[in-house]
């Protein structure tokens, strides 16, 4: 089960060409950041990815510049509520000097509001640094999407659900480098977990 994650940095994506390669089953696209930024390619990517049969989901780039509640409202106002969508993702790539309790509080608020709206628990996208600083032993109820472009990822006892294993993928239909990911399981397990 392989998938892509994209944003406006990939420019115009030829989704039909990506689909014809029959290599990727799911795609996540950047929707929002903070309390007011909307990715300029989100709406097009969302509609086109779904049109060409990809399992599609949206991600929010978390910021400590505004509250979790404000960020949740912004995401909910941007991302359609559709039953065939993948769970929302919160991208946690903040610097490591924030107050840990405050980060966890705002993340929980954001995640709770997303879960209320979309009826599914969000996934946390993390680096090893943000995982060990803010997530480990505190937000264990969330599935983890780990970035490791060098080796097979390990998070101790925590099992990861998604792994971003390349940030320089080359894919027909996309004219720039793109992130490539894999699900930790089969297509059936993916559908069961993320239905």
In short:
The chain is of the alpha/beta class.
Question: In words, what does this structure look like?
Answer:
By secondary structure, the protein is an alpha/beta fold. α3 packs parallel to α4. A hairpin with an 8-residue loop joins β8 and β9. The chain has an eight-stranded mixed barrel. It has six helices and nine strands. The two termini are 15 Å apart. It has a single domain, classed as Glycosidases (TIM Barrel, Alpha-Beta Barrel), CATH 3.20.20. The mean pLDDT is 96. The longest helix is centred in the middle third of the chain and has 19 residues.
Tally of discrete structural domains: 1
Amount of beta strand: 25-35%
Give the CATH level 1 class.
Answer: Alpha Beta
The CATH H-level homologous superfamily: Glycosidases
> Strand sequence of the main sheet, in spatial order?
1-2-4-5-6-7-8-9
Question: Structural class, judged by helices and strands?
Answer: alpha/beta
Number of helices: 6
Helix content: 25-40%
Listing every helix as H and every strand as E from the N terminus to the C terminus, the arrangement reads EHEEHEHEHEHEEEH
CATH topology: TIM Barrel
Structure summary, number of beta strands = 9
Mean pLDDT: 96
Radius of gyration: 16 Å
Question: N-to-C terminal Cα separation, in Å?
Answer: 15 Å
The appropriate CATH architecture is: Alpha-Beta Barrel
């Amino acid at each position: 089960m392989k998938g892509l994650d994209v944003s406006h940095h990939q420019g115009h994506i030829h989704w039909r060409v990506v689909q014809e390669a029959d290599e990727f089953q799911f795609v996540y696209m950047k929707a929002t950041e903070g309390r007011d930024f909307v990715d300029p390619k989100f709406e097009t990517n969302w509609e086109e990815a779904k049109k060409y049969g990809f399992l599609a989901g949206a991600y929010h780039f978390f910021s400590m510049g505004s509250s979790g509640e404000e960020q949740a409202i912004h995401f909910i106002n941007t991302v359609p509520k559709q039953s065939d969508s993948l769970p929302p993702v919160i991208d946690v790539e903040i610097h490591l000097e924030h107050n840990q309790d405050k980060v966890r509080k705002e993340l929980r608020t954001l995640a709770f509001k997303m879960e209320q709206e979309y009826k599914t628990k969000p996934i946390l996208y993390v680096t090893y640094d943000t995982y060990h600083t803010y997530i480990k032993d505190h937000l264990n109820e969330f599935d983890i999407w780990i970035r490791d472009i060098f080796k097979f990822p390990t998070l101790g006892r925590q099992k990861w659900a998604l792994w971003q294993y390349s940030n320089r993928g080359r894919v027909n239909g996309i004219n720039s480098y793109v992130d490539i990911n894999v699900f930790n399981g089969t297509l059936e397990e993916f559908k069961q977990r993320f239905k």
